[in-house]
Amino acid sequence: MADRRVAITGLGVVTPAGIGLEDTWQTILDGRKCVAEIDLFKPGHFPCKIAGQLRDFSAREFVPKNYRKAVKVMARDIEIAVAAADLAFLDSGIVTIGTGDEPTIESKRLGCNIGAGLICTELNELGTAINTAVTDGKFDYEKWGQAGMTNLTPLWLLKYLPNMLSCHVTIINGAEGPSNCITCGDVSAHLSAGESSLYIKRGIADVVVAGAAESKLNPMGLLRQGMLGRLCTTRNDSPAEAVRPFDAEHAGSAIGEGGGLFLLEDMDRAKKRGGKIYAELAGFGAACDPAGIDIEKPTAGNLALAVKNAIKSAGITPDDVDLIFAYGTGVPAEDIAEAAEWRKVFGDAASTIPAVSTTGVTGTMFAGGGGVQIALAAKALHEQTVPPTTNFSTPAEGCNMNFAKEPRKAELKYIVVGAYTVGGQSGACVLKRGEA
Amino acid sequence: MSERRVVITGMGTINPLGHDVETTWSAMLAGELAPSPIELFDASTFPTHFAAQVKGFDMSKHLSPAAAEKHKHAGRHCQFALAAAVQAWQQSGLGGWEKLDNGRLGVYLGSGEGSIDFDKFVGLLIDAWVDGQVDTDKWPELAFERMELYREIEQESNMVVAHLAAEFGACGPAYNVLTACAASTQAMGEAAMQVRHGLADTVITGGAHSMIHPFGLTGFNRLTALSTRNDDCATASRPFDMTRDGFVIGEGASILIMEDYEHAKARGANILAEVVGYGASADAFRITDQDPEGDGAATSMRAALADAGISPEDIDYISAHGTGTKQNDQVETRAVKAVFGQDTKVPMSSVKSMVGHLIAAAGATELITCILALRDQILPPTANNHELDPDCDLDYVSNEARKASVKTCMSNSFGFGGQNNTLIIKPCE
What we know:
heterodimer; A: twelve-stranded mixed sheet; 19 strands; B: alpha/beta; ten-stranded mixed sheet; 14 helices; 16 strands
């Protein structure tokens, strides 16, 4: 097999920090904090009333006219993915049937591998139907079967299948190549990056839409993350200060909604067409921790092994890494576990190599968070800039890493990006500065 | 990139026809039919009252008390996965092998989401329903009091991966994918790529799913995808038959061990088959319909053939996706003819006619039948195949298992939304 190299040539991000790469990037550089009181619905008696919400987001703007009707069967997670894909294509200069009249990529050579989480049904939609099938205050199966269920739209199920992120994107953009949907929590995007790059190296696709999107900003998300004890419940009055990755005052995370998609492209093809090369996806690794089954005891999913594998597959050593793009949920036990994993890879240098986490601005975006992390790493290489770690001031115990308060220019050749998820899986990518 | 050969060294299954591989296979060869009235909840007024259910499943027959304790929070499909994985692991002989490198042992599953805690969940929607919407004062108060942590988090589909990693001490790459009905075929294909390209030496792969719960049945009934043959449910799954009226929802898990050939050989493992080809594609057509020409499905098959470096004539048997929906079976037939020729004689059967549609777990269950077809030189039948649809004019191995010379098998899975996957296996030479 010919050794094809893989370039990142288009970035599409939809985050609380901005709709689109430039807005998000600038917000992150400025350290503008986007976690705020929830107004998507009334946070009522939820212990955590804050989140990173998307602002001024309408998926319809990112969907071709002839497909707009389909938006009504898209859960929020799907809307984010569809928009991010559109932004990524526009950014790349690669034209698909969804973004222009004359596609510049052959459908069968365009792959799509978008990670997703457990999509939550809209409770008000479902509740309206459920409450037609109640007898004496209890759910009535007979009534539900006879008539209750007909209050749900026939396509109800399709709104919530995780592969629909990929499916809508394939339909809109005519992507007929290999397609997958990885559902591995916060590391879905890292795993997607690795797998998608293999499509290109194996020669079965020339361009792949990779990454992930998710929104857990709904009552079930607040409930589940709250039950896990992962959400900050002590800063409802100062939401902007709430999420403090690796900081001594870290006290939990906030749910962010968002997604990050990136176009992976055969390097030669990208160069030939004069595409903008943000970075090369130079290395990938994945791992897991068998202890992840115990969801009440956070682990960082054996992240060190994933990172070591990624570094090895990039053909470099830890000494070559110029920036650690950490995950940093701001959940104390998770931050400590994560920092320990970075230390396993870099030893004492983990305290001196520049590092960054951007969750202080956006909150934790779950599957989408990994996608955004990778997209921002590519952008950081392209801009030769280390973004700041907002809400970090004094390292928490064991979290002595070199986070910067202000953005700064730096010579960056290799960035390693890593994350882990509840359940114990981890993933890491090594991004290399793109050649001009 | 270096390429390594990928072999299968273990398999296990829990499904509506059996709680192990051999029982399942005997049932299929005898043409046994799994569908029966739903016992898991009261579905008597749903458009569909029946399903292919796993019955009499007993975790203690598959897991030691200590293991059962470790996995006490596992949900229904996760329990199936654990039991199937234990069978596969035992067959592979990896358990007693001292040189196993856990960092090179991965898990790559196509598992479905865990089912919702239905009674409690709808109870909340009823009790916290005020003025036509969820009251967010009342709902969280009740929810934090009533809902159970593990029951909620185990719904994330990567949790099955976590359980298998915990059971076998896997520390290598760990994935879950959920491309609807194609999920476990996709998982096995990508697992094979992990081994082929050296990301792992051994991967525990396959899938698990149960959607036999009120919302699963509701979702598919609203899509009118399910058979409603309530008066004759045993024969309701009728792939390629004129009288077919939808698929029969099933549940279960099938797990396989994939391994680098040299790795398997070095430890003297019994090799069951070699994975020689994998293809994937997307219809990119509509979320509700397959591409009527079957172009996406054909692309997937062609990709797998190209990957294997063989031609259609080399395929001796196709395990069909064969769901029994009007649309799938016609489109699938068209796609096979596009790849294999309009007058192809290649036999193709759908075991879904007997075991039902195990959704995410379907593909892995079907690949196991391909391995057994290679082993026993016999093709499982398509049951309930009495009156062929004129648009379905292939050899579907109707009703009776058949002796045949089988050297190479293809297995197809097509997901709702248009993701298609194909695997090709051969005996290991």
